[in-house]
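Write out the 3D structure for:
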Amino acid sequence: MKKNESGGLVYSTGHGRMCPACGKPVAACLCGQKLPAPAGDGIVRVGRQTKGRKGKGVTVITGLPLSEAELKALAKELKARSGAGGAVKEGVIEIQGDHRDWVLEELRGRGWKAKPIG
């Protein structure tokens, strides 16, 4: 086995070359492939949740018909504009704080049918 400087596996005698991003064999790597968008009803929902966050609220955006990479890029733009942190978890964008109003306007401006929940 060979490892690169950051400790990631580069080559395995059992599998050959390994993808540095996901750690899977290059033949089974899905990093560069575009995955199909998740199915849904076409409505983007924007809400606020506090459950499991010790009372701290986050703005939650669900139902976006985007791939994981596109979700991360959109989340990065929204976090930068809001000046807050956040994450993408299981196809859901979470932005720290209550930013529902301008997130709705932003998504509608981009052409998505968005509605508030909760």
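The chain is about 20% helix and 30% strand.
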